[in-house]
Specification:
Helices cover 34% and strands 28% of the residues. It is an alpha/beta fold. Strand 7, helix 7 and strand 8 form a beta-alpha-beta unit. Bound molecules: adenosine-5'-triphosphate. The site of adenosine-5'-triphosphate has 10 residues, from helix 1. This is ABC transporter ATP-binding protein.
C-alpha cells in the first residue's frame, strides 16, 4: 500500500518551545486516522505542523513520497494538504459559492460534487459567510478544503461547538468523503466514540508524544485504554 503521509521523529512547536516530542507515524492512502488525546496534548500542533504553520525543529514530513518538511504553508496546500483549521477561517464577506471557488484547483471535487455532499450549502450558496450557522460554516470549511482537491484532508475538531444533530450530519458527510470516496484524512476529535467507528487507525497523544497507535476498532473495544487516556463521554442517564 502507498503511504499518503509519513512523519519521522517530528519535533516542532512555537518559536523555541517544542510541543511535539518526536512523532513518527504512517498513514496509508485512502485511510482515516483519528487523532485523540486530552486537551493540550499537541493534537492541533501536530496538524498545524503538517499544514506548515508552526516552527519546525527536526524530523521530516513526506506526502506521497515527496519531502514537504521545508515547504511554506501555501506550497504544502499546492502539494496536496487540505486543511480545515479549528477556527474555520471562512471569508465572511464572500458568499458560500465564492468561498469555494476562490481557491479551487482542478480535480474530481467541484461545486456540483460538494453540493451533492452538502445539500445545505447549495441552499445557502448565495448567503455570505457571516450569515451561516456554526454547522453550515463547518460544512463550508470542509467543502472549501475539498475544492483544492487535496491528497490528504486535515480536520481539526470539526464537530466542536455544534448541536448533536448537526454533529451526526457532519460526521456522516465526512464518512462519505473518506470511506465512500477514498479521501485520506486525519480527524482531531474530542468524542472518541463518535470518530473511532468511522476511522481506520487511531493515535493518542500525551505531552506531544504518541502513547497509543493502532486500529480504531481495537481501541473502541478497549474501555480501560479509552478511560486511561481520554475523557470518555458517559452514556446519558435519565
Ligand atoms: N500559539 C501557541 N504558542 C505557544 N504555545 C502554544 C500555542 N498553541 C498551543 N500552544 C501550546 O502547545 C501545547 C499543545 O497545544 P495544542 O493546541 O496542540 O493541544 P491540543 O491537544 O490540540 O489541545 P486542544 O484539544 O485543547 O485543542 C499546549 O501546552 C499549548 O499551551
Amino acid at each position: 500500500m502507498t503511504a499518503v503521509l509519513v512523519t519521522d521523529t517530528l519535533v516542532a512547536g512555537y518559536g523555541e518551545a517544542s510541543v511535539l516530542a518526536g512523532i513518527s507515524l504512517t498513514l496509508d492512502e485512502g485511510k482515516t486516522l483519528a487523532l485523540l488525546g486530552r486537551n493540550g496534548t499537541g493534537k492541533t500542533t501536530f496538524v498545524n505542523t503538517l499544514a506548515g504553520v508552526t516552527t519546525h525543529h527536526s524530523g521530516s514530513i513526506h506526502l506521497l513520497g515527496k519531502d514537504v518538511t521545508k515547504l511554506r504553508a501555501d506550497r504544502r496546500a499546492a502539494a496536496g494538504i487540505g486543511w480545515v483549521p479549528q477556527e474555520r477561517n471562512i471569508f465572511k464577506s464572500l458568499t458560500v459559492e465564492e468561498n469555494m471557488t476562490a481557491i479551487a484547483r482542478p480535480g474530481m471535487w467541484n461545486l456540483e460534487r460538494i453540493y451533492q455532499m452538502f445539500p445545505r450549502l447549495k441552499e445557502r450558496r448565495k448567503n455570505l459567510g457571516n450569515q451561516l450557522s456554526g454547522g453550515e460554516q463547518q460544512m463550508l470549511a470542509v467543502g472549501r478544503a475539498l475544492m483544492v482537491n487535496p491528497k490528504l484532508l486535515l480536520l481539526d475538531e470539526p464537530t466542536e461547538g455544534l448541536a448533536p444533530i448537526i454533529v451526526d450530519e457532519l460526521l456522516a458527510a465526512i464518512q462519505r468523503i473518506t470511506q465512500g470516496e477514498g479521501m485520506s484524512a486525519i480527524i482531531i476529535e474530542q468524542k472518541a466514540k463518535k470518530v473511532l467507528p468511522l476511522s481506520d487507525d487511531a493515535v493518542i497523544l500525551d505531552r506531544g508524544a504518541i502513547v497509543y497507535q493502532g486500529k480504531s476498532a481495537d481501541l473502541l473495544a478497549d474501555e480501560s485504554l479509552l478511560g486511561q487516556h481520554l475523557a470518555v463521554e458517559k452514556a446519558a442517564r435519565h
